[in-house]
TrEMBL record:
The gene is fabH. Homodimer. Keywords: Acyltransferase, Cytoplasm, Fatty acid biosynthesis, Fatty acid metabolism, Lipid biosynthesis, Lipid metabolism, Multifunctional enzyme, Transferase. Residues 244-333 form the Beta-ketoacyl-[acyl-carrier-protein] synthase III C-terminal domain. Its EC number is 2.3.1.180. GO terms for biological process: fatty acid biosynthetic process; secondary metabolite biosynthetic process. Residues 261-265 are annotated as: ACP-binding. Residues 111-192 form the Beta-ketoacyl-[acyl-carrier-protein] synthase III N-terminal domain. It comes from Streptomyces kanamyceticus. This is Beta-ketoacyl-[acyl-carrier-protein] synthase III. Pfam families: ACP_syn_III (PF08545), ACP_syn_III_C (PF08541).
Length: 339
């Protein structure tokens, strides 16, 4: 197989039906709808019921992305499944092989990507590289999360922010780089020196989870919000500029900024720093909160179904998350109907 670009050709999303409003949280925690709305822009988030896993959401979103791409879920539909998640079904094995099997996609390559809130863009970069290297024709790329399983329900600083959900795309080999949907530029970055800003301390080889540990709550997700806020704006702005420069697009020419949906104030500050009018920033977090690796494909599916993203428009994707990690991708929007 020869070198060729990779293009987005299918888009699907799935949100679990249980919706938690700010008022629901205020009834249980020392918080208010007013604080959550003004400090984050979030009004509601979805949560799985006990027993529903990240893999379950990934299967739903994956099925829809295949349908959107006009593909039946059967062997030969895609050559690989890449699943970005912070909340795999098990520490071992990866969740992607199970998702591929449950979708009936045959004995194809399937692997997880762990880059927290940047995970979907890391997965897109990896899948696109497999296609351009000639290792695959089509790849199902999924971002799926169940943060409700790792959040301390008593911690008001994190439990009001995160939500569960999944989004997926099909990437396929394209004839030429002028084809709409082609990933024109990709930028990835990381800074492990600041790994402690976002972490689940226990449960890995550094700090195993065993009963009777001095810090039994080390299994919960922790975040230093203020420092994360500042780093998110700075790194996403730098990465966005870098990817735009690499393909010769100016910031003024970007029609839609689809940033990681962490906080409306972060999106606003990012647009301002880039010099992109605020109204070009897609905002979906008001309905779903921060869904980490699922946030970009969920925002894309929402904006495309609302008619905001139109074929041929210039779209900039950018994300930031634990690791620290960040990344950006630029593409012209294809003629795709989300499922
Ligand atoms: N309800 C009411 N008060 C709350 C609260 C809540 N849910 N959460 C925190 N507070 C309080 C704090 O205790 C603090 O009180 P104090 O001044 O008496 O100490 C006050 O509100 C301000 O807290 P602070 O953390 O400084 O608020 P903030 O304006 O930085 O907003 C975040 C907090 C988490 C919303 C914000 O920092 C943020 O969005 N960070 C990025 C997080 C993110 O999305 N990361 C994901 C990976 S990119």
């Amino acid at each position: 197989m020869a070198y060729r670009p990779a293009a987005l050709m299918g888009l699907g999303s799935y949100l679990p039906p249980w919706v938690i409003s700010n008022e629901d949280l205020a009834a249980e925690l020392d918080t208010t709808d007013e604080w959550i709305t003004t400090r984050t822009g979030i009004r509601a988030r979805h949560r799985v019921s006990p027993g529903t896993s990240t893999g379950d959401l990934a299967v739903e979103a994956g099925h829809r992305a295949l349908k959107s791409a006009g593909l039946d879920a059967e062997p030969g539909a895609v050559d690989a499944v890449v699943l970005a998640t912070t909340t795999p079904d098990h520490p071992c094995p990866a969740t992607a092989p199970d998702v591929a099997a449950r979708l009936g996609l045959g004995p194809i390559g399937a692997y997880d990507i762990s880059a927290v809130c940047s995970g979907f863009l890391y997965a897109l970069a990896t899948a696109s590289a497999q296609i351009t290297a000639g290792q695959a024709e089509r790849i199902l790329v999924i971002g799926a999360e169940t943060y409700s399983t790792i959040i301390n329900p008593a911690d008001r600083t994190t439990s009001v922010i995160f939500g569960d959900g999944a989004g997926a795309v099909v990437l396929a080999a394209a004839d030429d780089s002028g084809q709409p949907g082609v990933l024109l530029g990709v930028d990835l970055g990381s800074d492990g020196l600041h790994r402690d800003l976002i972490s689940i301390p226990a449960g890995g080889s550094r700090q195993r989870s065993t009963p009777g540990e001095p810090d039994p709550d080390g299994r919960y997700f922790t975040m230093q919000g203020k420092k994360v806020f500042a780093a998110a704006v700075a790194r996403m702005a730098e990465s966005s500029t870098s990817v735009l420069d690499s393909i010769g697009w100016t910031t003024e020419s970007v029609d839609h900024l689809v940033g990681h949906q962490a906080n409306a104030r972060i999106l606003k500050a990012l647009a301002k720093q880039l010099g992109i009018p605020e109204e070009r920033a897609v905002v979906h977090l008001d309905r779903v909160g921060n869904t980490s690796a699922a946030s970009i494909p969920l925002a894309l599916a929402h904006a495309a179904s609302q008619g905001t993203l139109t074929p041929g428009s210039r779209v900039l994707l950018t994300a930031f998350g634990g690791g620290l990690t960040w990344g950006s991708v630029a593409l012209t929007w294809p003629d795709v109907t989300p499922a």
